[in-house]
Amino acid sequence: MTDDPKTLERIAAALERLAPAPAPLPDLTAANAYVWQAGPDRLTAAPRVNHVDLALLQGIDHVRDILLANTERFAAGLPANNALLWGARGMGKSSLIKAVHAAVNARRQKENALLLVEIHREDIQSLPRLLKMLTGGRRTLIFCDDLSFDGDDTTYKSLKAVLDGGIEGRPDNVLFYATSNRRHLMPRQMIENERSSAINPAEAVEEKVSLSDRFGLWLGFHGCSQDQYLAMVDGYVAHFGLSGEAVELHHQALEWATTRGARSGRVAWQFILDLAGRQGKRLA
Q1: E-assigned strands of the chain?
Q2: Is 146 exposed, middle or buried (0-12, 13-18, 19+ CB in 10 A)?
Q3: 51, 82, 150, 187: least buried by Cβ within 10 Å?
Q4: Which residue, 130, 222, 207, 209, is CA-closest to 176?
């Protein structure tokens, strides 16, 4: 064994890279929103959450009211369900979660504000470590946008255990909200492949679809009608004080939707961005 100081320093540095010391617990009072990043594990404060007013989310009144009530109960310390928001693209799934978080906190004292932590899909396997960091602290919504699993991906098993199947269970102060374009978080082809190749097809399929069963709330988002789409546009126009005759604006908005082959909240917002830019107005 060498006694050379430089060699010992290099060995110590290599060991530190292989097994770094646990990161210090962050100050979770510095902000109401954080982004979780794994490897190394850390929570990065988000001083400003990109959200829209709850009243501007048109055409999703029923699911809006359900998610808002569930979140208010959780913030008040009452029982509440994990929620899966699934369905059509661009219909406000992730926008609703952020808007509900802002609306609930607007009614609460600063010291009792609800925490929002975003975890990226690729970091789901680190979710148990995040929960250990949050256990016993502020009441927290963990939010994962566009959650889905493909092919031989087995990280969904980590999520299943965390939602309600683990020996420790989910911490009382944490709730999990996810959005997905898929009701069962996995493509139909993946489920059918399991059905055709497994020794016991029923058990294989059950393993795949049981993940979504862990969510107490399934909130479906569907494509909007023309009237709902125009109501979204009208709401944004009034909120931001944009100018123009309603008939002409509707004509432009429908033409905008036609060029994109869809009507949705996202398409309505993109039209508003274009309209505000043409009118030389900034959107606060």
Answers
A1: 33-37, 42-45, 83-87, 115-119, 140-144, 174-180, 217-221
A2: middle
A3: 150
A4: 130
In 3D space, the residue among 140, 97, 95, 144 whose CA is nearest the CA of residue 118 turns out to be 144
Identify the architecture of domain 33-221 in CATH. 3-Layer(aba) Sandwich (3.40)
What predicted TM-score, i.e. pTM, was given to this entire model?
Answer: 0.81
Asked whether 268 and 256 are in contact (CB, 8 A), the reply is no
Q: What is the pLDDT of residues 85-132, one digit of tens each?
A: 998 888 999 999 999 999 999 988 877 899 999 999 888 888 888 988
* Helix pair angle (188-197, 201-213), 10° resolution: 150
Model confidence pLDDT, tens digit, residues 166-197: 666 678 899 999 998 877 666 555 544 544 44
The domain spans of the chain are 33-221, 226-278
